[in-house]
Design brief:
Blueprint: H1 2-12, E1 14-15, H2 18-21, E2 28-29, H3 33-39, H4 42-73, H5 78-93, H6 96-106, H7 113-118, H8 129-158, H9 161-169, H10 174-185, H11 187-202, H12 206-211, H13 224-234, H14 238-269
Antiparallel strand pairs: 1-2
Helix pairs in contact: 1-14, 3-14, 4-8, 4-11, 5-8, 6-8, 8-11, 9-10, 11-14, 13-14
Subcellular location: Cell membrane
Keywords: Cell membrane, Membrane, Transmembrane, Transmembrane helix, Transport
Transmembrane segments: 47-72, 84-107, 127-156, 177-199, 238-260
């Protein structure tokens, strides 16, 4: 992993376009010039804000669905539990391109069954900015919640049954049991799935690229990963694309370190 990150950082400090790749012009050192150009671009800040909001919505939704289904797995019999597990793992194992294509077919304005069931006629879900983001969010949650569900379910099964029985005998509701008993005991597992979800959802590429045809109309559904791809490969501005990659790496490292530090402080206080 060190060498690709090194190359990414190195290119972000160079003037590296198609001319330098083809050997037509020499590569020159730009220092922080690429970053200054990037931070001075209003579109970058718009895409960054959209990425943060979209990733946060995906993480919260994935954790909510995954944890709810993990609790449900502990309440149903063996056969329904096996069926739910197999269905969830099937969604998890589906390649992102395949899953995105299937969701597009389901919500297709002409042939999709969803519009017919809802009576929406030829409504296009990918035309509007927010409806397109919502459609992608559903697909991201669909392919991501099985990891949370299986991991949290394994953690719940490791909790002593006597603890849950005592809470139930004290009159605690299912929500209170989760909030006051299970969640604190599952904190290390929840940390892992939260950080993994943040990393995965912040750098979503395939779903956005496939379902919005490269970022939506006039780039209205761009996220940082797709934005970096467009800069690097569509515009041949490899140095700017690398700078965006470095910014994404630093943001994810900062989020992870802050989250772990806050969690450690809470653990010390407890």
């Amino acid at each position: 992993m060190v060498y690709p990150v090194y190359q990414l950082g190195l290119i972000s400090f160079l003037e590296y376009t198609q001319a330098q790749v083809s050997g037509g012009e020499p590569t020159t050192f730009q220092g922080f010039g690429n970053y200054a150009e990037l931070f001075g671009d209003g579109e970058f800040w718009r895409v960054l804000l959209a990425t943060v909001v979209f990733a946060a919505a995906c993480v919260v939704s994935t954790l909510a669905v995954g944890c709810a289904l993990a609790v449900l797995l502990t309440r149903v019999r063996a056969l329904p539990r096996l069926a739910l597990m197999m269905a969830a793992l099937g969604a998890w194992a589906t390649p992102a391109v395949t899953g995105s294509t299937v969701w597009l077919l389901l919500f297709d304005p002409d042939f999709g069954p969803v519009n017919r069931m809802l009576g929406l006629g030829d409504h296009s879900w990918t035309y509007g900015r927010f409806s397109a983001f919502a459609l992608v969010l559903l697909e991201v949650v669909w392919c991501s919640f099985p990891f949370v569900m299986v991991t949290v379910y394994a953690g719940i099964r490791a909790v002593p049954a006597e603890v849950l029985e005592a809470a139930a005998l004290d009159g605690a509701s299912q929500w209170r049991i989760w909030r006051s008993v299970l969640a604190p005991m599952l904190r290390p597992i929840l940390v892992v799935v939260t950080i993994q979800s943040v990393i995965w959802d912040f750098k979503v590429f395939t779903q956005i690229y496939v379902m919005t045809n490269g970022g939506g109309i006039a780039g209205q559904n761009l996220v940082l990963n797709v934005y970096a791809y467009q800069k690097a490969f569509a515009s041949s501005q490899y140095s700017l694309g690398s700078a965006i990659g470095v910014v994404m790496l630093l943001i994810l490292l900062a989020v992870t370190l802050v989250y772990l530090r806050l969690l450690r402080r809470q653990g010390e206080e407890l």
